[in-house]
Amino acid sequence: MNRILSRRNLSLASISSVGVAFAEIGSVRAGNATEVASRLKTVDVKQFGAVGDGVTDDASAINKAIEEIRRVHLQLDGFSLGCRLLFPTGVYAVRSSVNLTMLRNINTVIDGQGSVVLGRCEGEPIIDALGARWLTINDLTLLSDSDVLPSVGLQIGRVTLDVADDHHLTNVKILGAFSKASLYNKGAETSSFEHVYLTNNYPQGYCLVQDGLNHFDIKSKYINMSLVPNRDGSFNENIFVNCDFRHLAGGVPVWLGDTTRHDFIRCYATTKGQFAFVIFSGPNGHTMLRVDCHCETIGLKNVFCFSAFSPKITIRGFSYIEHGCFAEEFVFFGDSNVKEIEIQNANLEIAMYRSNACRVFSAGAVWVVSGYYYSSDPVTWNGNGIFRGTVSLGSSVKYIEG
After folding, report:
1. Is the pTM of this model over 0.85?
2. Phi then psi for 83, rounded to 5 degrees?
3. Which positions make up the signal peptide (predicted)?
4. How far apart (Å, rounded) are the C-alpha atoms in residues 132 and 138?
5. What's the rounded Cα separation, in Å, for the pair 162 and 158?
């Protein structure tokens, strides 16, 4: 509660300052439209020396263009009608990270125009945007060079306890091999991702990491991180719409750590490996996690793996919707070190199963689940005695009491 209140107070302060800025803009607009127009700026990376031929190292030129955006923002007393970083169509090779860290001004737009940023930065992220706020990234592809292994395609999120949120990605693709993740989000709240396509063909890496714990101890060469690994923080309100997470080497597409009000809507998560999702619980666990995600891969063993350092996991509100389950073994799998997994207020709707050998829960004694379950296929149900609520199997409905 203290975390929530402190963030609310911070948000109110931010709203107040933005209101003052809007009042200032109103007076400028009324007085001089030319002055308003002068505040709008597009920064073209080619004007700062980027070539975009897929061979030349354009990292320095791109970072110079970003420094120009920082300079313009500073001149506007912390508020801007909008700066746009433009990538004219091309392939921009980079041998070190693109530095968007701590860029914290409203209306910064990264306009990819269908361009590719080719990451030849071994062991580094292609784009490092830790500590940034209010980034909008459109129509851009990040691609790892097959001869090197970047750590991350794009990393966003906190570097301190201060918020680093309100990002929006549309029509973004992050493709190739990454040692940690294609997209790594360290606690960036109130962010949205639409038509984002992520692949990873490195076995130990993920496509998407949503990390509310700093579990993987993410780093930046541009700024110092003051966060302690595996210490919980607020991680609210992320939404993924029509996104695709494809692990091409049999690894885990999606890793989630201590999320609150995260939504996956009309998404895909595909792999031939053990799990489509890892749900990792730290001190706070997960609250109101909604997964409408089709895990369509022949060879998938289990849909969800629930894991934690603690022997007990509590998930407060969990929804999973699937029209056709491809899992061969279990929908819900508990890691061997977890002795009890409680899912409160579950809403599980799985229309049908591809394999009659699949079962809903692994190791029945571990699970304590309440809520609602539906499937047209009664064969796979094995929740008697561990599930309390309404169970609808095809046309039949039965109630299991505590």
Report:
1. yes
2. -120, 140
3. 1-23
4. 16
5. 7
Please state which CATH class domain 43-300 belongs to: mainly beta
pLDDT tens series, the chain, 402 aa: 344 444 434 444 443 434 444 344 444 444 455 555 555 689 999 999 999 999 999 999 999 999 999 888 766 544 556 689 999 999 999 999 999 999 987 779 999 999 999 999 999 999 999 999 999 999 999 999 989 999 999 999 999 888 899 999 999 999 999 999 999 999 999 999 999 999 999 999 999 999 999 999 898 999 988 778 888 788 999 999 999 999 999 999 999 999 999 999 999 999 999 999 999 999 889 999 999 999 999 999 999 999 999 999 999 999 999 999 999 999 999 999 999 999 999 999 999 999 999 999 998 789 999 999 999 999 999 998 899 999 999 887 776 664
Query: Whose structure tokens read 């009324």?
Result: 30
Tell how strand 98-99 and strand 396-400 pair up: unpaired
Amino acid at 201: N
Rounded to whole angstroms, how far apart are CA atoms 114 and 127? Answer: 16
C-alpha torsion sign, points 273, 168, 265, 367: positive
CA 207, 274, 296, 264 torsion-angle sign: negative
242's tokens: 């029509």
Q: How far apart are the first and last CA of the chain?
A: 31
In the chain, where the domains are located: 7-38, 43-300
Using alpha carbons only, how large is the chain's radius of gyration in Å?
23
H/E/C letters for each residue in the chain?
Answer: CHHHHHHHHHHHHHHHHHHHHHHHHHHHHHHCHHHHHHCCEEEEHHHHCCCCEEEEECHHHHHHHHHHHHHHHHHCCCCCCCEEEECCCCEEEECCCEECCCCCCCCEEEEEEEEEEEECCCCCEEEEEECCCCEEEEEEEEEECCCCCCCEEEEEECCCCCCCCCCEEEEEEEECCCCCEEEEEECCCCEEEEEEEEEECCCCCEEEEEECCCCCCCCCCCCCCCCCCCCCCCCEEEEEECCEEEECCCCCCEEEECCEEEEEEEEEEECCCCEEEEEEECCCCEEEEEEEEECCCCCCCEEEEEEECCCEEEEEEEEEEECCECCCCEEEEECCCCCEEEEEEEEEEECCECCCCCEEECCHHHEEEEEEEEECCCCCCCCCCCEEEEEEECCEEEEECC
